[in-house]
Structure formats: C-alpha cells, structure tokens
Amino acid sequence: MDLESSGTFLVPDGSGLTVTIESISVVEGASRVNGNNSSFGVESLDRAEDDSDQFDSSLLESLTLSFNRAVSISRLDFVGFSGSDSFDFYGTSIDVNDLIGDQEYDLSSMPMVLAANQAFTMKATTGSVGLQDITLAAIPEPTAFLFGALVAGCVGMAATRQRPARSSATASAEPLS
Ligand SMILES: [Ca+2]
Ligand SMILES: [Ca+2]
Ligand SMILES: [Ca+2]
C-alpha cells in the first residue's frame, strides 16, 4: 500500500480494498496525511519543525486507518528509521533492531491480521519515521472463499492445469505521478 501526495492510498489492484482515514492526531493545529515518492506520514501544518512525510513523535502525530475488508499484513517498510527511533503499529512496538534490509519489518512468518473495518493506529513513539510501504493481502470472506473453492474445484475437473486467480498482491513504493 502506498500513498499519493493527494492523500489517496494505493492498494493492490483487483483486491477490492479501500482504506478509510478514521482520524489524524497532532499536538496542535491543522493536519493531513502527506506522502511523496519515498514515504508517507502525518503533516502538522502549523509547525515549522514538522517533517511533512514522516511521523514526528515530538508533535504527537498519529494516524488511524481502517480497511473495508480483513487483511493480513506481512511487511512494513520504513524510511528515516535511525538508531534511537521507535514506532508503534497497532500495538506492536518496533525499534531499529527489529528491522532488516532497507529498514523493513518482516512479519511474513506470522502476518498481522486486521478484521474488516478494524481501526488501527500508527505513530512514531521516539524520533521521526516515515512509512514507505505496507505489504498486505486481502483475506477472502468466508462465503466468497467457499464459493471460490467450489468454482476452483469445478474448473479443476474441467481443466486440471488452470489455477485460481490469486487475490493477494504486494503494493510497492514505485514513484508516483
Ligand atoms: Ca510529520
Ligand atoms: Ca525502506
Ligand atoms: Ca528518524
């Protein structure tokens, strides 16, 4: 999942996912979600020291989102995550020692599951951190899943080589236009 500078989240094509901004908190004044090609965060419009596309703990910036469908989150990708910084993602506390690669927090061995319309909050708890990308997959609805399995079974009998379409996808932080 990525974010355009207009504040529109980019979710995997064909996933049927939509993202709702439930709330944005800052220490004072006006605020918005802001992003550029490399990261997104909360912008405190009335504070000169704000880093507009990062979450600044000194400005008590936090963002609460929800998805319209259940999702599993397998990776968080950060920028600007230096040694003393820390970040809280829906109650999971992350520091620099938890990161691999390009400041990535890998959850693939045990993805975090969020229910449909479950509000979840993210914020920097120390320092300033930008969120570059969230790797997630929509979890099929139980009825849709059963129906899909039934269809896949019928198709499987007719054409054993065809595979059901995958509903998961990875959003990347490609430059946005
Ligand atoms: Ca900020
Ligand atoms: Ca990164
Ligand atoms: Ca930082």
CATH architecture: Sandwich
What is Rg?
Answer: 18 Å
The total count of helices amounts to 1
Query: Which structural class do the helices and strands define?
Result: mainly beta
Hey, roughly how much beta strand do the residues contain? Answer: 35-45%
Under CATH, the topology can be stated as Jelly Rolls
Q: Report the order of strands and helices.
A: EEEEEEEEEEEEEEH
For the record, what CATH class applies? Mainly Beta
Indicate the percent of residues in helices. Answer: under 10%
Q: What is the subunit organization of this protein?
A: single chain
Low-confidence stretches: 169-177
Give a quick account of the main beta sheet: strands, pairing sense, barrel closure: 5 strands, antiparallel
Task: Summarize the SSE layout with pairings.
Layout (H helix, E strand, L loop, with lengths): L1 E2 L5 E2 L8 E7 L5 E5 L4 E5 L10 E2 L5 E6 L3 E9 L6 E4 L2 E4 L8 E3 L5 E3 L5 E7 L1 E11 L3 H17 L19
Antiparallel strand pairs: 1-2, 3-7, 4-5, 6-14, 7-13, 8-11, 8-12, 8-14, 9-10, 9-13
The structure holds calcium ion (3 copies).
Describe the structure in your own words.
The relative contact order is 0.22. Helices cover 10% and strands 40% of the residues. The protein is globular, with a radius of gyration of 18 Å. It has one domain: Jelly Rolls, CATH 2.60.120. The longest helix is centred in the C-terminal third of the chain and has 17 residues, at 142-158. The protein has 1 helix and 14 strands, in the order E-E-E-E-E-E-E-E-E-E-E-E-E-E-H. The chain has 177 residues and is mainly beta. Residues 41-44, 50-52, 54-56, 61 line the site of one calcium ion. This is PEP-CTERM protein-sorting domain-containing protein. It comes from Posidoniimonas corsicana.
